[in-house]
């Protein structure tokens, strides 16, 4: 116990590492809570509304995610670099000005995206042979702006190194979501309740709850400061575009399988089961995601200050820590997949093998560390764009080969293979560019203990 206390004391004495550690653990606990509550809500939806309702919700979430990505255009990811950089070089008011311009761009793009979704809604309903979803797709057009603006505010708070405030704005709507789900299921049961819940608690409420910390940490403290540099829209978009392509590639990896499964005649219920598996498998990467949202702004800050050795030291220490924290979750999901899927109902147990395969991909993703965040924070976002595009193309190619024969298991293998491929390429590129290895290999990597 004394040794453990000494270790913790040493970690907390390390200023930069301690800051990221506290933010990452706070975010990790938040994500675990959020994912846990969504896990419970997923079980409730599956048990009371059935696999078909889960599948319909999956189709809606897929469509809205794709359009949200197009509307965002990589802007929220660009702010992860721009806000800490301009705050470090100039002042908070200049950084806030970038957020204002980003909001304006998002609103413009949201109008176009909403109109587009309203127009193509009949074609989507016909393509998926779900005529009852016409009104669902059309009404979703009105919630798209709130979904994207909420994400933009959340990323901006993290870029300002206010992870706790960003976490609170995520937790509150999720808690409200589970409470409302219980109430409407018991008192106002309707087959479309999961969809209504998605609109209100995952689109509208996160945006509303993010406005308070935005005012507290951006607007209020910067009122008396001047804008030292005026950043133009085209400058934001110039950085956002490569990140948009990167994000689009990842969305292809996470969403193309849904379209391909439907294209090859897989039922909506099976699509819902598969997407449930992908959501559960993300639990294995919870600590990595938590690190990513905290570490990129800090890397940008240190890299802007020229502290390159400090960047290397921090991310290598975290690579080991994240793996060790993620290992228990990985073992649980990989070896107990059958029992986990049973919680959703007997129909969902067909996805147990797919869950194990997807979990294997996530743990490899964790082993490789924050590849995307290091490259984006250090100005190598175009190179990572190319890496992610390769992964997306590979995902589609392997999916075309495996889905017709193996269904959702084939989609899971395609997802995992492409994830392993782009991670390996990213790690090799970082080794050649920066001269050090980001990947942590248990029992092999010779590093100082975190």
Structure description:
- This protein has 450 residues and is mainly alpha-helical.
- It has one domain.
- The chain is built from 17 helices and no strands.
- Helix 2 runs antiparallel to helix 6 (144-159), helix 3 (75-89) runs antiparallel to helix 4 (92-127) and helix 16 packs antiparallel against helix 17.
How much helix is in the residues? over 70%
The Rg value, from CA coordinates, equals 22 Å
Q: Could you give a short account of the major beta sheet?
A: none
How many strands appear in the DSSP assignment?
0
Number of helices: 17
The best one-word shape is globular
- Mean of residue pLDDT? 79
Low-confidence stretches: 446-450
The helix-strand sequence is HHHHHHHHHHHHHHHHH
How big a fraction of the residues is strand? under 5%
| Secondary-structure content class | mainly alpha
Counted up, domains total 1
Distance between the termini: 17 Å
Task: Supply database-style keywords.
single chain; 450 residues; mainly alpha; 17 helices; 82% helix; disordered C terminus
Give a topology summary.
Elements: H1 2-13, H2 15-72, H3 75-89, H4 92-127, H5 134-140, H6 144-159, H7 163-187, H8 193-219, H9 233-263, H10 268-281, H11 286-304, H12 308-335, H13 337-342, H14 352-368, H15 371-377, H16 381-406, H17 408-434
Helix pairs in contact: 2-4, 2-6, 2-7, 2-9, 2-10, 2-11, 3-4, 3-6, 3-9, 3-11, 4-5, 4-6, 6-7, 6-8, 7-8, 9-10, 9-16, 9-17, 10-14, 10-17, 11-12, 11-15, 12-14, 14-17, 15-16, 16-17
